[in-house]
Design goal:
Layout: E1 3-7, E2 10-12, E3 18-25, E4 33-39, E5 46-51, E6 58-60, E7 68-73, E8 78-83, E9 92-103, E10 108-114, E11 118-122
Parallel strand pairs: 2-11
Antiparallel strand pairs: 1-3, 3-8, 4-5, 4-9, 5-6, 7-8, 9-10, 9-11
Length: 124
């Protein structure tokens, strides 16, 4: 029943822009930290950006600071990644992630959900 569905990927020229969206359902979205990861062939998955449950704190990889912006709309259960000034090195499959640790009264229970991924290609 838990579902994360990404959209907005595609082909863009260097210097162009794309906005990725991730629509969530089946869990308490407003309680979760949301993140965007990316992965290219032959390399490890990389954290691109994350945002806390209320949207008050954001974190970015050094390689995308000043170019990418993560945001969320808890009323729509959606997280976004605005990507500007795109470079060929940004080419990757981008994944949406939801993560939380929930206190049960005796221990912390881990929750970690992933989307299916969407391809972003930056090329002239």
């Amino acid at each position: 029943q838990v579902q994360l569905v990404e959209s907005g990927g595609g082909l863009v020229q260097p210097g162009g822009s794309l906005r990725l969206s991730c629509a969530a359902s089946g869990f308490a979205f407003s309680r979760y930290t949301m993140s965007w990861y990316r992965q290219v062939s032959g390399k490890e998955r990389e954290l691109v950006a994350d945002i806390t449950s209320a949207g008050g704190t954001t974190n970015y990889a050094d390689s995308v600071k000043g170019r990418f912006t993560i945001s969320r709309d808890n009323a729509k259960n959606t997280v976004y990644l605005q990507m500007n000034s795109l470079k060929p090195e940004d080419t990757a499959v981008y994944y949406c992630n939801a993560n939380n640790l929930i206190w049960t009264g005796s221990y912390l229970k881990k929750y970690d959900y992933w989307g299916q991924g969407t391809q972003v290609t930056v090329s002239s």
